[in-house]
């Protein structure tokens, strides 16, 4: 099984994933961003883009990597990864379904002011124009398709530990 934690930057996906993992037996975290980083390291480079998800190989490589890891380890993968393009989400979902891999899709949501504050106040990554650019894309995806495709966990007033417990409880039930 895959527990996919979606949502935009500042929602708490990475932090929450690390807290969900010990709450779900036989689980491990797989950050699909690492697949994108691998593609970014190819030299000479792939065509320029502002987001590695736009490279057609990224999506099937995420599916294939998740499948291979699950074939090897079994259990559950907790995957913190923003996917805001519906076509990309459908492609990944269809690929996982083709391999019989069930997905529990959660969206970590927070209001725009909270997200902006978290991004601007990030003491690890610092304020990031790249991350701020995705706030509007997230709002549009949430309004048009994303929230209908997932279990929404509003993190506006939750700690990451509280969000993790809610997700783990939902998965176990």
Walk me through this protein's architecture.
InterPro entries: P-loop_NTPase (IPR027417). This is AAA family ATPase. It comes from Kitasatospora purpeofusca. The structure is a single chain. This protein is of the alpha/beta class and 173 residues long. The chain has a single domain (2-172), classed as Rossmann fold. The chain has helices at residues 13-20, 33-40, 58-73, 86-98, 112-120, 129-144, 160-172, and strands spanning 2-6, 27-29, 76-80, 103-109, 151-154. It has a 5-stranded parallel β-sheet, with helices on both faces. It is globular and about 40 Å long. The mean pLDDT is 95.
Provide the fold topology:
Elements lengths: L1 E5 L6 H8 L6 E3 L3 H8 L17 H16 L2 E5 L5 H13 L4 E7 L2 H9 L8 H16 L6 E4 L5 H13 L1
Parallel strand pairs: 1-3, 1-4, 2-3, 4-5
Protein name: AAA family ATPase
Organism: Kitasatospora purpeofusca
InterPro entries: P-loop_NTPase
- Order of strands side by side in the largest beta sheet? 2-3-1-4-5
Indicate how many domains the architecture comprises: 1
Cα Rg: 16 Å
* Helical content band: 40-55%
Shape: globular
Output the number of helix runs. Answer: 7
Proportion of strand residues:
5-15%
């Amino acid at each position: 099984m895959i527990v996919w934690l979606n949502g935009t930057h500042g929602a708490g996906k990475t932090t929450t994933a690390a807290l969900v993992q010990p709450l779900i037996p036989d689980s491990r975290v797989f950050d699909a961003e690492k697949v994108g980083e691998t593609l970014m390291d190819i030299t000479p480079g792939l065509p320029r883009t502002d987001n590695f998800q736009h490279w057609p190989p990224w999506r099937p490589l995420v599916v294939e990597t998740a499948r291979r890891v699950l074939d090897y380890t079994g259990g559950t993968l907790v995957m913190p990864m923003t996917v805001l393009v519906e076509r990309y989400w459908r492609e990944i979902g269809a690929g996982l379904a083709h391999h019989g891999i069930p997905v529990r899709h959660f969206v970590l949501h927070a209001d725009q002011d909270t997200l902006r504050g978290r991004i601007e106040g990030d003491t690890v990554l610092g304020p990031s124009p790249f991350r701020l650019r995705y706030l509007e894309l997230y709002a549009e995806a949430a309004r048009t398709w994303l929230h209908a495709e997932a279990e929404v966990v509003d993190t506006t007033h939750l700690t990451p530990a509280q969000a993790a417990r809610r997700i783990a409880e939902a998965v176990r039930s």
